[in-house]
Design a protein that fits this description.
CATH class of the largest domain: Alpha Beta
Largest sheet: 8 strands, antiparallel
Mean pLDDT: 93
Shape: globular
CATH architecture of the largest domain: 3-Layer(aba) Sandwich
Bound molecules: fructose -6-phosphate
Structural class: alpha/beta
């Protein structure tokens, strides 16, 4: 989704902004732009008309285009821009198609102010009509340009920049993360947020950064201030002033981000997605680190320690999430209901937030989110909290909005996930859900012996994931070559592997643009079977668990209709070799943990099919890494 970066200091702003924008490319975007304030020295005659005095004025320069940051870089290279203050943006179109004119930054009616904006201004049409009646004219179709003009209205009434932004924001309805500069205020960036993340970086030597994602500024500083909703800041070379949008001055703590630069670089892999798939043995270990007490067959999740009573008392758990995180949650439901015997409801956050769900104070909600910024998930936990539920987060990005707004939670510690298609976050979410299952189980009916054997098996999962990567990757590149031109794929699984089928299909469609559907294997006969013919590859997840024989029957049904079966099976399974055209083996584990292994070949399959089709794996079309709009 859109990205924001800003800089004020003593260095050239353009390279800092461009490299920051490149770090934000993974979020998904369709155009990019910069606004800079260039100081122009000019000679002015003195009153006696003899000598000349040097004064400076400031010019607002905007460069923007549809396309990639490299296109913007080329434009900037051809026009050396000298400035020590500026803002940069990557846009993901909401109002108005991707185009040069709709790209950010946008300016006000006097071309004095430039703004970049993440989010959506919901009442923009109403404000635009009002401004048109006052003589304004607009170049773009965007809601952001309307906000620029509204700020410009106040600015032209002699309010300073901070106050003009503040007054304008008091009139808008919707979500925003913004950064604003003005030609007549060449020392400051004004930024604000509501519903869209914004972080301010504190650098050395009186330099400061603004970003929608710490990844954009981590190369320069680890010291940051997170703005909360309805807060704004005036950032200048002499420091940061923070206030609420209702004009109450506030003091914000400077926090230190724990993120290494290598974590957001490719480290020799062709794509971030492949790197992240390969990181999973380590990230699963990190998700468990310090959390298991093997001897007691139990788990300690530090973030939940103050809420053990609520968890013990809970009559029902509600999990809410979107996309891949939803699939992890669905597996979590199966795990928790089997081992802890607590009823779990799981619902897409986008549905939950709008349908007046039944929630009470005996429920405990879990919001699962990699980014911690997904607008629907955030709104769902706010709704749950409003209805009296305890809201807990299972989140990756430290300091993200969901992490901060939940009553408590558990970080999955997967490190930055840059590839748009979520991979390592999924397995880390599953690991945390498995730990939660053991903890909830031990509070209820799970014996120490059973808890211990689950933990022992879980501790072996990182090695088994490594084994899966080592033994299947080459074979999967060959399978990808065979099926890369298929128009459709079907993914089937049962029990714990039904959500894995959903996840495998989601991964394939996201990055290869092949239509794919995930189904509970037994449901195939109730409809999708009509689609099966000699052109249909069917991926069947068939580990040797208690529904194994049933899944074999489903494979027979596919074969009888000439479908091509690619099976994910337990190593040593000779029987399945006779039934499936392709068999990818994974190590044996407890059924509850098979998703942690069975998803790995599906991630690789989608990756290799997408690369064989020449798709942009890390930045698939139309997708955004963190979906901060509804
Ligand atoms: C799929 C994917 C998305 C996200 C979804 C939720 O690969 O990345 O489906 O899983 O947008 O995002 P988070 O987990 O950040 O809330």
């Amino acid at each position: 989704m859109c990205g924001i970066v800003g800089y004020v200091g003593n260095r050239e702003a353009t390279p800092i902004l461009l490299s920051g924008l490149k770090r934000l490319e993974y979020r998904g975007y369709d155009s990019a732009g910069l606004a800079l304030l260039e100081e122009l020295p000019r000679a002015v005659s003195t009153s006696n008309g003899h000598s000349a005095e040097l004064v400076t004025s400031t010019r607002l320069i905007i460069e923007k285009c549809k396309g990639k940051v490299t296109d913007l870089e080329e434009i900037a290279a051809n026009k050396p821009l000298h400035s020590t203050i500026g803002i940069g943006h990557t846009r993901w179109a909401t109002h108005g198609a991707p185009s040069d004119v709709n790209s950010h930054p946008h300016t006000d009616q006097n071309d004095k102010i430039a703004i970049i904006h993440n989010g959506i201004i919901e009442n923009y049409a109403h404000i635009r009509d009002r401004l048109i009646a006052r003589g304004h004219s607009f170049r773009s179709e965007t809601d952001t340009e309307v906000l620029a003009h509204l700020i410009g209205e106040f600015y032209s009434q002699n309010h300073n920049l901070t106050e003009s932004v503040r007054l304008a924001l008091n009139e808008v309805v919707g979500a925003f993360g913004i950064a604003v500069i003005a030609a007549d205020d060449p020392n400051e960036i004004v930024c604000a947020r509501k519903g869209s993340p914004l972080v301010i970086g504190v650098g050395n030597d009186n330099e400061y950064f603004v970003a929608s994602d710490a990844a954009a500024i981590i190369a320069h500083t680890r010291q940051v201030i997170y703005l909360s909703d309805n807060e704004m800041a005036t950032v200048s070379r002499s420091g940061i002033k923070t206030r609420t949008i209702s004009n109450i001055e506030i003091t914000k703590p400077v926090e230190v981000i724990d993120m290494e630069l290598e974590a957001i670089e490719k480290g020799g892999f062709a794509h971030f997605m492949l790197k992240e798939i390969h990181e999973q043995p380590r990230t699963i270990t990190d998700a468990m680190r310090g959390r298991v007490i093997e001897e007691e067959g139990n788990v300690i999740l530090g973030g939940l320690q103050n809420h053990l009573k609520d968890l013990r008392r809970a009559k029902r758990l509600i999990i809410t999430a979107c996309g891949t995180s939803f699939h992890a949650g669905l597996i979590g439901k199966y795990m928790i209901e089997q081992y802890a015997r607590v009823p779990v409801e799981i619902e897409y956050a986008s549905e939950f937030r709008y349908r007046n769900p039944i929630v009470d104070d005996e429920d405990v909600m879990f919001a699962i989110s990699q980014s911690g910024e997904t607008a629907d998930t955030l709104a769902a936990i706010r709704e749950g909290k409003r209805k009296g539920s305890l809201a807990l987060g299972i989140v990756n990005v430290v300091g993200s909005t969901i992490a901060r707004e939940s009553d408590a939670g558990v970080y999955i510690h997967a490190g930055p996930e840059i590839g748009v298609a979520s991979t390592k976050a999924f397995t880390s979410q599953l690991t945390v859900l498995a730990l939660l299952t053991i903890m909830l189980g031990r509070m209820r009916h799970l014996s120490v012996v059973d808890g211990r054997s689950m933990i022992r098996e879980l501790l072996q999962i990182p090695d088994k994931v490594q084994q899966t990567l080592d033994s299947t990757e080459r074979q999967i590149t060959e399978i990808a070559e065979i099926f890369k031109d298929a128009a459709n794929f079907l993914y089937l699984g049962r029990g714990y592997n039904y959500p894995v089928a959903l996840e495998g299909a989601l991964k394939l469609k996201e990055i290869s643009y092949i239509h794919a559907e995930g189904y509970p294997a037994a449901e195939m006969k109730h409809g999708p079977i009509a689609l099966i013919d000699e052109n249909m590859p069917v991926v069947v997840i068939a580990p040797q668990d208690d529904v194994y024989e049933k899944v074999l029957s489903n494979i027979q049904e596919v074969r009888a209709r000439k479908g091509h079966v690619i099976a994910i099976a337990t190593e040593g399974d000779e029987k399945i070799k006779e039934l499936a055209e392709q068999v990818i083996f994974i190590p044996k584990t407890l059924p509850v943990f098979t998703p942690l292994l069975s998803v790995v070949p599906l991630q690789l399959l989608s990756y290799y099919i997408a690369t064989a089709r020449g798709c942009n794996v890390d930045q698939p079309r139309n997708l955004a890494k963190s979906v901060t709009v509804e």
